[in-house]
Amino acid sequence: MDRVSRILRALTCCVVIVLVPIALTTFAAPSVEASQRPSATVFSWSKPKKVAPYALFAISCASLRFCVATDDVGGEVTYNGRSWSRDALIDPVGRLGQQTFLSSVSCPTSNFCAAVDENGNALIFNGKGPRLGWEVPEPVDPKLTITSVSCPSPSFCVAGDAFGDVSTYDGTSWSPPQDFSEVRGFFSVSCENQNFCWVLGGDCLPPANCVFSPKPTEDAVSYDNGAWSAPESIDPGQEIASVSCQAGSLCVAVDAIGQALVYNDGTWSKPQQIDHAQLMSIACPSTTFCVAVDRAGYALSFDPANLSQIQRTEIDPNKLVDHGGVPQSISCPDPSNCFVVEGADLVIGST
């Protein structure tokens, strides 16, 4: 299922937290011999615990003491390092008066977050707004479906939509959307700092579910010191589901057919198969460590310098929660701790 279809489909389940020791298996590219695979290291996930009444779709953690997860009915829950808050409605008015699906959230600090919704609105958390510190939703994109937002600091954010448009936030206001007509749609944004970002997207799978023109074939634009690049194609014919950038101009992206791409030294690598399932989201808390989650319910950890050696762990091996959701979003405040939104669950992993 393509990224846009997932965004437009409301998940109707409860949410939970996961720390159970689990077995670690290794997935390697077909050309890598078993003897070359790294030995397993301990990675565990917490036991399920319900923390919200609705399905969470996106999560962002500024630290181990501050995370925000957003849901499919305009609400959010906040983690303070000890417990989760009660679900709070921060985006109550959608199209035709319906509650609004919050598709993405980004929190660079514990005092600032930006969230975006399927109705073209952006919401800012600064601790001063009327809804538990959240400002009222601000119309940003008339084409409606904003799919992703990334804020490296409270004074800069980039958001992309399902129609190939991007908007930027300067700490005070949002810019009008800039249209990249060569790109079919954007599904993920990541900014290493306020001077460098990648916005990625591409084809949607299957084409019958696409809500935009089938003609454009480019899938990536970069933002470098205030200027946008011309669109380019880095993963032809595929949906790039998620990207994560770290200091040093290193980025890693994953797509819908289990491939990963690495941006380093100014160029993207060719797509390389790292999984047999659809990859949904990726987080790289350092330049030498990334974790991606797939549609089959596994987490894949690896060093971007060596995509042939992957540590693969099942997130809920004991099937403690009877859920129909799949991992949707991951945030890792440091290389030893990650939070995963599964739709029906929220799980916490640690090494």
Please summarize what this structure is.
The protein has 351 residues and is an all-beta fold.
Poorly predicted sequence stretches spanning 5 or more consecutive residues? 1-41, 205-215
Q: Which superfamily, in CATH terms, is the homologous superfamily?
A: YVTN repeat-like/Quinoprotein amine dehydrogenase
Quaternary: single chain
CATH class equals Mainly Beta
Description:
The protein has 351 residues and is an all-beta fold. Helices cover 2% and strands 47% of the residues. It has one helix and 34 strands. It has a five-stranded antiparallel β-sheet with strand order 2-4-34-33-32, with no helix packed on it. Strands 3-31-30-29-28 form a five-stranded antiparallel β-sheet, with no helix packed on it. β33 (337-341) and β34 form a beta hairpin. It starts with a helix and ends with a strand. The model is unreliable at 1-41 and 205-215 (pLDDT under 50).
